[in-house]
Structures are given as C-alpha cells and as structure tokens.
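Structure first, sequence second, as always.
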C-alpha cells in the first residue's frame, strides 16, 4: 500500500547481530563493554583501550541509529529504500512531455550557415531562448516551456560520408546545458550508413541526463542536395528497440526522446507501420521543411495523418540572408504554431 511501511528488515538484522555478539562474548576470546569497546578476558591485565573497536559493535550502533531515524518518521512517510524504489518507478512511468513543451535552437556549433546555434555564443543562445520561451509561455495554456540545444551530431558530406562533431565541443554544450536547465538533442544525418549504426554512434551520450537523440531521413543518401533520402518503418522500429535495450542494459532511468524528421512522403516508407509504444523511448515525429505559412501548414497536416506517431514536432527557419539557403516567409507566430492540429510538443528554430 502507498501509505504504509512494512516492518524494517533492520529490526531483524539488529536482533541477529546482537545474538551473534552475545555468543561471541560468552565463547570468544574478548567481550564488549557497555560502550561498545572490545575488552580482553577478565584477568588478562592489559590496558582497557589496547584493543580496537570490534566491527560488530560499530555495525550494531549503525543499525540502532538507522532504526531510530526510521522509527521517528510518520507512518505515511516512505523509508529510504521505498523512496528510492518509488522514485525510479515514477521516472519510468512519467513522460517528460506530460507537462512540458520543448523549444529548441538548431544547428552546428561551428557553422554559421547551418542554423542559429552556430551564430551565437552559448550564453547568448540561452538569453535568446529565454526571450522566445516567454513568448511561447504566454500562449501555452499553462504548460511549461523547456529550452533545448538541437545539435547536428553527424553532418552528411558528398558521397554520403559523415563528419562527426568533436567530443570536446559537444561536451562543452552538454555541460553548459546541464548548468542552465537546457535539454540537448543530438541529430545524425545518416548519409550512406544504416539508421541503427548511426544511432549507435550517439548512444553513449545518453549517460548525460539531459541528452536526447534524433535522426534525419532527408540525408540518408549518397547524393546529398541532389535527392531526398529515406528510411523504412522497420528501421525506425529497430532504432527504438536498440535505444531502449541500451538504456535498460546501462541502467538509464526514465525515458528519452527520439526525433524523426519528415517533410516529404519519400522520407519514411510504410509509415503506418512505425511503432510508438516503447516504454523508455518516446518517438517524436517532426515536420521539417521551409516555405510560406500555407506550405508549412500543409506539410504539418500531412504528418498529422500518421496518428500512429501521435507526438508531433515542428521546425521553423530563420532568414539569415545566406545565399541559397531556404527560410520561412514569414515565420509563424507562437500562437499560430500552437494552433496547429495536433498541437506540437517539440518546436525548433533553425
């Protein structure tokens, strides 16, 4: 029952050790005085403090102290062990999206042409996220708005090769994010590799509690910028299984998000077969692509048809006047973003 405590096992342990110590006092070569000090047999004639403390006495003192502390708790308060178990169960049962939306800045820390993330310092990004989060909070209907860095982890190169961000740079952003209550998404563009192999490159970063993962099917190709890439529903399901198994094997509590981007029907084949019921992996289906508000809404409506992936995301593109780079014209307002149906839980700006 939630509000009752079983009798602590420490009571039994205390009685057990007291019995052992009593037997030791009768049959052993030394005895314990009332203060828990080891004493030589009567008549031995050695100094009182010559022998060290008997370990059992120290453990008995610890149990007595532990019991006293537990006995002082009101009956409706969990023991330490119960609290730990309940907390871990609570983490596994709760979705981080239950009460929170996520607002992210996207890009590569070392490139001004790949999104807003590379155009400002970490502190400046944090300040700009604060300001934008305030605008979204005013329209969120009482839901919290959490900040995030959305970092390109693997960048596709010609022929589908991948350039991986350096550990040093990524760790700097993760550490800063931890200190400032910011989530971190790391995004692999896949290239000529399989989605599972790409995902496995990122799994070790899940040791940081604020890190989540993403895959971008657009770049699963050997001809980037010439053709749109694709992944299958089965590959997405495999990725979720591999990610969940890794979390279980490495005792990572709670859930983590896995984001899949889409703006064209080619990008996910057999889309209706994508699963989204894994216990520890929360799949987010994100509408990508730039353009006019009408085109953006049309893309989102197409993604909304995939109700087997109910958690949706939405991506917006700033205009930084980069030759050849696409952008939204004009940007949708926070109110317009929240009016999308279904409401997006992850919102990112590139």
């Amino acid at each position: 029952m939630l509000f009752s405590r079983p009798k602590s096992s420490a009571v039994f342990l205390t009685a057990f050790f007291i019995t052992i110590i009593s037997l030791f006092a009768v049959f052993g070569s030394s005895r314990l005085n009332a203060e828990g000090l080891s004493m030589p047999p009567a008549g031995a004639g050695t100094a009182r403090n010559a022998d060290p403390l008997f370990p059992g006495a120290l453990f008995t003192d610890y149990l007595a102290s532990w019991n006293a502390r537990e006995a002082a708790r009101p009956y409706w308060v969990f023991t330490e062990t119960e609290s730990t178990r309940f907390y871990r169960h609570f983490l596994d049962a709760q979705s981080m999206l239950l009460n929170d939306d996520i607002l992210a800045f996207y890009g590569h820390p070392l490139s001004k042409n790949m999104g807003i993330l590379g155009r400002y310092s970490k502190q400046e990004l944090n300040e700009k996220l604060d300001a934008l989060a305030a605008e979204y909070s005013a329209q969120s209907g009482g839901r919290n708005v959490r900040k995030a860095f959305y970092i390109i982890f693997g960048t596709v190169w010609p022929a589908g090769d991948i350039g991986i961000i350096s550990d040093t740079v990524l760790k700097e952003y993760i550490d800063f994010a931890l200190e400032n209550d910011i989530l971190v998404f790391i995004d692999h563009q896949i290239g000529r590799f399989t989605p599972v192999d790409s995902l496995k490159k990122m799994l070790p970063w899940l040791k940081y509690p604020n890190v989540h993962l993403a895959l971008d099917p657009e770049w699963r190709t050997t001809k980037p910028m010439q053709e749109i890439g694709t992944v299958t529903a089965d590959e997405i399901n495999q990725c979720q299984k591999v990610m969940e198994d890794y979390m279980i094997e490495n005792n990572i509590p709670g859930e983590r998000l896995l984001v899949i981007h889409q703006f064209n029907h080619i990008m996910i084949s057999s889309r209706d077969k994508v699963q989204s019921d894994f216990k520890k992996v929360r799949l987010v289906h994100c509408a990508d692509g730039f353009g006019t508000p009408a085109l953006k809404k049309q893309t989102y409506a197409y993604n909304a048809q995939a109700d087997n992936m109910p958690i949706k995301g939405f991506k917006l593109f700033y205009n930084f006047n980069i030759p050849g780079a696409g952008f939204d014209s004009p940007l949708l307002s926070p109110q317009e973003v929240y009016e999308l149906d279904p409401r997006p839980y992850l919102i990112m700006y590139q």
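Margin note: The mean pLDDT is 84.
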